[in-house]
Amino acid sequence: GLASNYLCDLEQGAEVDVTGPFGATFLMPGDHSAHLLLICTGTGSAPMRAFTMQRQRSGATGGMTMFFGARAPESLPYFGPLKKVPESLLKQHLVFSRLEDCEKEYVQDRIVAEQEAVAELLGNDKTHIYICGLRGMEEGVEQAMTSIAEGMGQRWSDLRDTMREDGRYHVETY
Q1: Is residue 43 domain-resident?
Q2: How many domains does the chain contain in total?
Q3: Bridge partners for 90 per DSSP
Q4: Residue 161: domain span
Q5: In angstroms, rounded to a whole number, what is the distance separating the alpha carbons of residues 172 and 39?
Q6: What contacts 169, CB < 8 A, 6 or more positions away?
Q7: What is the mean pLDDT of residues 28-52?
Q8: pTM of the predicted model, to two decimals?
């Protein structure tokens, strides 16, 4: 993103003022058996990578499901390290919007396509949802979750608010 370009353009040895960290809302749960539902695009994958690395190191038993959107495989940051995460720990849904000879697909499209699995996660009190990336993705994800929750006989706004109150719903979009 913008910060990456700024840093890359600096002269070697240049000093940079850094502030933060800001907030404490995008933290992993202390419960190692909690399931993480990770939804991200582009550079929003940075905290997700940290989560997967931490989970690998800690021996956590809770699984992770990731919906990761990018234009094409070569534009996926951290694609190499992601391929090394065992499927027993991380169920990956890599979604691409700019592949030749393929229809555009976005994370919300894949979430709907995987609605049974997502509904099961939404019904689990140990599921934590993390959404990070472009703000435009957030609206589509909200619509997908609304549809899935309705299929469960629930209102997404109520479920989301309960998860947020319980510290299980986290959003960082820009």
Answers
A1: yes
A2: 1
A3: 64
A4: 34-173
A5: 11
A6: 128, 129, 160, 163
A7: 92
A8: 0.86
